[in-house]
Write a structure and sequence with these properties.
By secondary structure, the chain is an alpha+beta fold. The protein has four domains: 87 residues, Uridine Diphospho-n-acetylenolpyruvylglucosamine Reductase, domain 2 (2-Layer Sandwich), CATH 3.30.43.10; 118 residues, 2-Layer Sandwich (Uridine Diphospho-n-acetylenolpyruvylglucosamine Reductase, domain 3); 106 residues, Alpha-Beta Plaits, CATH 3.30.70.2190; 75 residues, Alpha-Beta Plaits (2-Layer Sandwich). It is built from 16 helices and 20 strands. The strands form five sheets. It has a seven-stranded antiparallel sheet, with helices on both faces. Strands 5-6-10-8-9 form a five-stranded antiparallel sheet. Strands 1-2-4-3 form a four-stranded mixed sheet. Helix 8 packs across helix 10 and helix 8 runs antiparallel to helix 13. Bound molecules: flavin-adenine dinucleotide. The site of flavin-adenine dinucleotide has 37 residues, from strand 3, helix 5, strand 10 and helix 12.
């Protein structure tokens, strides 16, 4: 069916004003926060599950790629229409449908902004725990699809630990429900499969989340170190002592300098590392735990360690941490955020070698990371217009992925595979592993219309035109 007819069909489903096809709009929705670029053919803004189902049926009948898109903050090319097609923008489906305090559940539409959900339940004394640093902008649908994490992941886990069920639209437009409000649903864990599937298996139209009562007390500490090793050893020491802080976040010198230049909160710009440690739980005993943390910091040669005395001081530290990417991004026209995990004990060696990769390719790398989870975020700074520098950035990013796998880790902790890390999959998976992933995709989406060319290498997923060869073991 030619383009004009598809346009009319989409217009019939969502209304005239909610199909976008102008050149400017097509360009605007061709990117995310990564370096990947694409161009959709249509952008539609549905308001209900029924409309999404009808749009999917049009795409299914005509073999057109479909890409769900929330706020477009993905760092791996997830919502980029690299094969054209229809973008389903979920931003208008942003309602919180139900807050069930007694059962500690919330039901939301996929376009609800993460921070709005958190704020709504916080007013009632509850927490939705996952906290991607981008939470002010991201949608819960994007969080589900990327299985997003955040600074609280050490204690509270990632999105998949808080998503209990969903209403989803399948590739042929049928609407089904997976998981549910109650625990222990029979059968296969389909909600587990959908969470983290990057929009390649289904489109989520309603999401059931777990919420928790607010903690009675919180203590936030800032520790400053003269070496990264001392900071990393402190993290290991705290975990070894049997403590489970909510947060163990680290910034290296380049990131500290960037944050201080922007937020001006008095961070020492000559420090090699800072560690943000947050303890939460019952009031009783929390002070003793904080004292113990201070002792461990001292054993590891901390330069200074201080406790946030007021809520305002604590907020300031958090604003600085959550704004670290943005602050670092001001240093050069572009940055590429790498995202791998390594076993926590391998952090010092991994960070040293990330520094060596930076030297080798003559590029500056800042490190902001969830130290408790061994989840690194090397931020590679560059100028996209300098093609030689760009080529070095890509090589360095690939070597960092290789390094993480060599250290016994993974190629991505929380930002997804998207397009950016398709080639990196071969570092972690053999051909039999990939076949298993492809079989799942085949079962859900045999015609490969849902976000094709992302996450799961398929018939259509050679990387940048190159065949990816997987090991046979
Ligand atoms: C400054 C900055 C900081 C960040 N910090 C973090 C962080 O701390 N932790 C973290 O995990 N990530 C972080 N990210 C990455 C990003 O914010 C997350 O991946 C986020 O979950 C994406 O949400 P979104 O609404 O922008 O989704 P989009 O970018 O629009 O889409 C992401 C993926 O989700 C799919 N998708 C969207 N909606 C649906 C749906 N309804 N059904 C099925 N699939 C869907 C899309 O097709 C795409 O594959 C950060 C990004 C930036 C720019």
């Amino acid at each position: 069916m030619e383009k004009e007819k598809i346009f009319r069909e989409l217009e019939r489903i969502v209304g005239k004003d909610d199909v976008m096809t102008s050149e400017m709009e097509l360009q605007l929705y061709g990117y995310d926060a990564s370096l990947i670029r694409g161009r959709p053919d249509w952008i539609v803004i549905p308001e209900s599950t029924e409309e999404i189902s009808q749009i999917v049926k049009v795409a299914y009948k005509n073999g057109i790629p479909l890409i769900a898109r929330g706020s477009g903050t993905s760092l791996s090319g997830g919502p980029v229409p690299s094969k054209g097609g229809i973008i389903i923008l979920t931003t208008r489906m942003n309602r919180i449908l139900e807050i069930d305090i007694e059962n500690q559940r919330v039901i939301v539409e996929p376009g609800a902004i993460t921070l709005d959900i958190k704020t709504a339940v916080a007013k009632l004394g509850y927490l939705y725990q996952p906290d991607p640093a981008s939470e002010k902008a991201t949608t819960i649908g994007g969080n589900l699809a990327e299985n997003s994490g955040g600074p609280l992941c050490f204690k509270y886990g990632v999105t998949s630990n808080h998503v209990l069920g969903a209403e989803i639209v399948l590739a042929d437009g049928r609407i089904i429900h997976v998981g549910g409000k109650s625990l222990d649903n029979p059968g296969l864990d389909l909600i587990g499969l959908i969470t983290g599937s990057e929009g390649t298996l289904a489109i989520a139209t309603k999401i059931i989340l777990r919420i928790m009562p607010k903690n009675e007390a919180v203590k936030t500490l800032l520790a400053i170190f003269n070496t990264v090793d001392d900071g990393a050893n402190t993290v290991s020491g705290i975990v070894k002592a049997g403590m489970v802080p909510a947060t163990l976040e680290m910034l290296d010198n380049v990131a500290i300098k960037a944050v201080e230049a922007f937020y001006k909160i008095g961070l020492p710009t000559d420090a090699a590392a800072m560690l943000l440690i947050e303890l939460d739980g019952l009031q009783d005993g929390l002070g003793r735990l904080a004292d113990h943390v201070v002792e461990i910091c001292k054993l590891n040669h901390v330069r200074e360690v201080s406790l946030a005395k007021t809520a305002a001081e604590r907020d300031q530290l958090w604003v600085a941490r959550k704004g670290a990417f943005g602050a670092t991004g001001r240093l050069r026209p572009n940055y590429l955020v790498n995202d791998g995990t390594v076993p926590r004990t391998k952090l010092p060696e991994t960070l040293r070698r990330v520094g060596e990769i930076g030297h080798k390719y003559n590029i500056e790398i800042a490190n902001v990371f969830h130290a408790g989870d061994g989840n690194l975020h090397p931020l590679i700074l560059f100028d996209e217009r300098d093609k030689d520098e760009l080529a070095r950035v890509h090589k360095a990013a690939f070597e960092i992925m290789q390094l993480c796998v060599e250290m016994g880790g993974t190629i991505t902790g929380e930002h997804g595979v998207g397009v950016e890390k398709l080639e990196g999959l071969k570092l972690q998976f053999c051909s039999a592993d990939i076949t298993a992933l492809q079989n799942v995709k085949q079962a859900f989406d045999p015609d490969d219309i849902l976000n094709p060319g992302k996450l799961i290498p398929g018939k259509s997923a050679a990387c940048g035109g190159r065949e990816i060869v997987y090991a046979e073991h």
